[in-house]
Amino acid sequence: MKKKRIHGDGLLHGLPKIYRTMKLICMFMFVALLQVSASSYSQTTKLNLSGRNLSLEEVFSRIEEQSEFSFFYNLKQLDLSRRVDVEFKNKSVEKILNRVLAGTNITYTVDNRLIVIHKKGETTGDVGWLQAQQKSVSGKVTDINGLPLPGVTIVVKGTTQGIITDTEGNYSLMDIPAGATLIFSFVGMKQQEIPIEGRNIINVQMREESVGIEEVVAIGYGTRSKRFVTGSVSSVDMEETKSILPNTNVGQSLGQIAGVQFVGSGRPGQSGDILIRGQNSLGTSSSPLIVLDGIIFEGSLSDINVQDIKTIDILKDAASTAIYGSRAANGVIMITSVKGTSTKPVIRLNSSYGVSEAAKWLKLQSRDSYIQRRIDYHKQADDQVDVTNLANLLQPDELENYNKGVFNDPFKDLVSRQGCLRTVDLSISGRTERVNYLVSGSFSEDKGLIKGDQEKRITFRINLDTKINDWMTIGTTSFFSSRDQSGITPSLYDAYRNSPFGNFYYSDGSVKFNPVDNEAASYNCMYDYELTDNEEKTQNLFSNLYAEIKIPFIKGLSFRMNYSPNLEWHNDYSFMRQDQHITGNNTQANKNIEKQFRWVWENILTYKKSIGNEHDFDLTLMYGRNHYELDQTLAEASLFDIDNLGYNNFSLGSQQQTNTYYAEKNGISSLARLNYVYKKKYMLSLAVRRDGSSVFGANNKFANFPSVALSWIASEEPFIKKIEAVNLLKIRASYGANGNDAISPYQTKSLNATTHYVFGDGGAATIGVIPETVMGNESLKWESTYASNIGIDFAILNSRISGSIDVYNKTTKDLIVMRTIPPTNGYENTYDNVGEVNNKGIEFALNTVNIQQPKFQWSSSFTFAYNKNKIVHLFGDIDGDGIEDDDIGNGWFIGENINSYFDYEFDGIYQEGDTDIPSHSEPGYVRVKDLSEDGDIQTDNSDKKVVGHGKHPDFALTFSNTFNYGNFSLYVAMNSMLGWEAPFNLVNPSDKGRALNTIDAGYWTPENKSNSRPSLTYTNPLETNWYFSRDFLRIKDIALSYDFRKMESTFFSAFSSFRLTLSVKNLYTFTNWIGPDPENCGDGATSNQGSDDLFPMPRIYSLGINVSF
Amino acid sequence: MAFVLLVMAGITACDEDGLLEQESKSNLTDASILNSKAGFDSYIVGLIYQFREEWQASDKTYWTQFYNTDMYCSIENVSQRFNWAQKYTSVSDFAETYWNWAYINMIPMTNNIIHYAEKNASIWEDDAEKNAVIAEARFFRAWTYNILANLFGDAPVVAEIATEPRFDYTRDSREQVYALAKEDLEFAAQWLPETTEQEGRAVKAAAQHLLTEVCISLGDYDEAITSASNLINSGLYHLMTTRFGNYSDQPGDPFSDLFKDGNFNRSSGNMESILVWQIEEYTEGGVGSYGRGNNFVRGWAPFLTKFKDPDGVSGFIYDPSVAGTDTMGRGAGFVRPSNYALYEIWENDWNDMRNSGYNMRRKFYYNNPESAYYKTQWDVSHAKTEEDTLKIVYPYSLKVEGPLFQGGSGRYKGRTKKDLYVIRLAETYLLRAEAYLRNNQKDKAAADINVIRARANANLVAESEVDLDYILDERARELMTEEPRIRTLIRMGKLVERVRRYDMDPTSRETIQDYNQFWPIPQTAIDANTGAVLEQNPGYSK
Question: Which of A832, A844, B352, B407 is the least buried, fewest Cβ under 10 Å from its Cβ?
């Protein structure tokens, strides 16, 4: 390898001479101090050198070629053009230099392997005050295995001063400020920033980037180098994500991982729906388990300040998650918060501001089409209405507004507003010899696109880790969050239906109940919004308190105890004020006060042992308990004559009612895990967890969840190691079991609710008791998932291309389902363990560094995930026809996706002249296929089939690119979800002759014979739904940022980060979905008449700043 | 080490199984409530709440008991006439609603009361106390099974408490269903109290009345007559022939007093009230789960506010703040009486009290001050479209009008705060008349009908004129908007015949098929019953 020499030119150029001089002097002083160690190499290294007419530079160069010496000099100051003849054999470098420099005004100073050439006499002068601020630093850069890493660039942050490591990975920098930070970078490796903090020697271990193979990952009850992880674990470096997208959120970051689906609505305070590797469960939660700093966290992701997160690790396969047995069948999200990294306190400020607009609104009837639809309806209905007279088509107040030119699109003109988001986050972190700390606070406000849809959030965090003595560490990771979601939204259901020619407010400005006086079925979408005061707040106090003890007498044995209390308050208060325009008293106040308290208590014993160089063991034993309780009070008061105290004084309401609810859930867990590594390349993990949960029947409280995993770092084998292009090849295989107890307590029992009845006239309410509709099941037991996983991790071409491929097969048995039962049982449904569901899938993640030039870099990340979900068994073959029976009542079909739609198959529209129109239909009605081919369309199930499936897509893809050019970087991310459908029934015509609005999706008329939309007189006799594909491709994020630190400015170089980012989220979506957004389609799209799920997806433009110093 | 010891102590000290036991902390179970007198009482109050839910759980379902019959048709939109092939299918939601109400809301509660009253026998002072509780449960069980048999024909009989889910139900014959009801009612008629302080609860007469109907269905006419006679002769009830109650000082007649707010319960002096669904505004439990009062104005009264005078100006306005416009409430014309109900049945005697101006609204006066026709009488010549007379202006029974329901949801127009009769003595006479007729005692049948007609100051009927159709006509006159007509017609096997004869809706007349004599079994019930085939009624899709 050719040595790279850093010439002094430029380093000191341009600075005042005195300053320059002082810097050099300072360096020499240190050299003198370090003389003992520094001189050893120069004295023991003997060199041979011969040549004629060599310049001094050539001499230095030849010395460098045969030794580890580097020369440092400034050509502007020195005349190195002197030619010499040399002939040295086995001489020390001092000898050689003394000889070639004899008679010049040039001398040298040796600092270990660095030789500085300078003018004589520059070592004198009083520079004592500079000594503390001017340093030289040297050290060795290695890879994770301790092998030297040549060619690593080291730059003093905020300057262009730098050097490159030699073949032995050594470097040495002189003349740098004591408070400087060094930036170490190398292709394919993660850039590191290390503050000098007064040290002279800084040895650095570089880790590979993106693939993160050498990163330490959280694996549950401990951490492990990713290299030795046996399961399928993906990680997100949130530090990086946050710097690219200042207003990112957790869910969205997770969505970039292959096999993790994040479906979100973009609404304020909504944490979205996260699904890892398909839906296992039919009736219980499919949400992954969240583990926050090593302890189970059952609150909302919305409570966690994203800026506090350092990394997120996702455990995907059963062997990884088995150690969390009970709740881990849906995968585990391990969140690790930020810790202090340097003794100098790091103060970090992150702030962003954004404005949002609707990416798309549902298209409602326009001014003209509203009337045209009415005309067409009367024509089709043939009801003798004179359609030439507008008075027959519109209500009087509608007509008046029509004539006045008043027209509202209730979505755009009434319920919506300009959305905006702002966040400010401030943190201080650092460490001392014994204490590591992070204190942070944040404020954010997210005003959604719909009035009243908003969240204000404040969070505080303290992470504190204190080493009491050599054998004991205690600490806490704690946070408090307060989320204020006060305000109610206008009714989108009504906004959809309200006549665009309606009057929404009286002339005095107060809200009307019916926008059209005679249309009592249309309630003003703004009515509740205008008259209701609402306060809704959630406060969450979460803490993990821990103590860790290194057992003094047995090396490698340590004990850790975690106690994690979590208290969550939720209150939702509302008050409806008197509507002055009605005679009755409509005042009503509600208070819902909820307190949830959870704790987890864990005792973990870890023993690590290495035998020789070849055998490494670690053993973990855990015993723990957990508890959950919910305490709820629901109060209601109405008939307030004095209404100015709102929901704060219920005794002013002459009618009052209170309900209370309490529930609790308890669990017991124990775990044993053994990890074994042989020759640092063969890994084995064995684990078994036993869980008990109070929610199951008396004899089924406990279940065992074993797992086994193997992996092999093939690239460590000599035959692969010699292939230079391959940097990593690792093969993994695992099999394990998980459980799921995510159901509410008391499902083993049939419960009763309370109600009231008033006997006689003017009497008081009498208490009544009625059964709930869920039948108890005393034999309810654990749902178990058995999963296997085979995976490959690879990195090639200097790790510029890296990635992983995983294939998995998950089978879930004894599914806990909310099963519809025959009503003759007296109940609608029951929780039951039935059947078997299978999820098979493949995940592929690829990270590439496409261009790596000094001024321009381009890297990409691509993920692909496919999951095939199907029901394998249900109840067996009850009717004895040799084919296992479907459960149509519950919508479950053998061999089909869990979320299947069973319906008639759409086959166009019956046209006039068709001869096969069944008795229940007519021209303009939907034609469905006669699947049973019996010549008739039956209303039983014989003509139906599974026409699609929804809720989760089959395919999820993401593609993100980062471009760096100079101080600019550009991030472009796209995502796509494919292979899912959902019903959207607003296409059905409803309330055609009335003053109600509707979607503008077209309709059949005798003149315009649509074959995709029905006539306005269509009554949907078969109760069939309209299905649309939810497939989409979205330009999710574009972010352009400018890094001021890279500017040659002393002001900005004082910062360790100074970045401005302009970004746009949800720029454009390619889709055929008819509603506002395919991702946020809601489950309410089965309505014919409107839906409260018609929220648009926001397109957000933001500006963010990220500063730390 | 101290930590380790602490842990070890923690592990060994606790009983793990005990820790995982669960006892519902804030919900009662059947076993934990049905073990005291107070518990039974609350449970029965819950049962009565569920009983009212047939009507109060939704805004429209109860009307399915009325329209698409000889008396009423359903006019949601004039263009969309009632096609039985489209509307009467196994996926029709009203069939599911009724089936589920019967089997989920009603029957299990009655079975639980009967089971636990016997099981916890020690809580009762004597058999009479226990039997009174069981009697109320058995009355409501019979009430429910009678409706099931009337609507669906054959139906599964479930008379035990549920312990674990079953999937193998089959239908018992209609006779078996009636037989269970009869047995229950015989017990209930023996043990229910004659009167109750809590108006709205079941009394002896309710059981006797229903027993009459069930016995007719079973062909046990003598028993039917006996039961009805026991009621009529008890001395506790008589038809109201004089003015009474809250509005007796205002213009009206005894028949109109029966349907005035506050006059439905016995304590108002109403001696023909037997069982009443209670409505109360501004009180918890005053209405059912839909929460909006008595919706009969909405159902039966015409959609007057849609009408435009000949100038095209709204003729009728509904605005509670404008005096005089709120007397009618706001109709929406969902249940449109047929010409049979509005005209044919009165032709015999137009001066029948039940057809008086206090009981039928046949004249309409423009009430919109903006209209040039203000205060003048509406004339049929003002109607321009079919809809105008089918849905917007037509005569209707004043039984449905009343003071507007305010409550917490007073802004929902079209509801009143009036109670609703479930059983009224007049119907008992008509049931006994039917039993006499079927028992070939035509004279007595005529006599019973004439009790009713006499009270209405109508011409008396001759014995020769009495037949089942006449009884149906008389029921129409007396029980308009009260009697769930379709149940009577199906019970008597007259639905298809009379729809073909009297239904105003030509599509309905043409599309009804013989198999529509019974309701379809809901597909959801068939689909959930995976362990056996729950047979569909013949004619409907399998």
Answer: A844
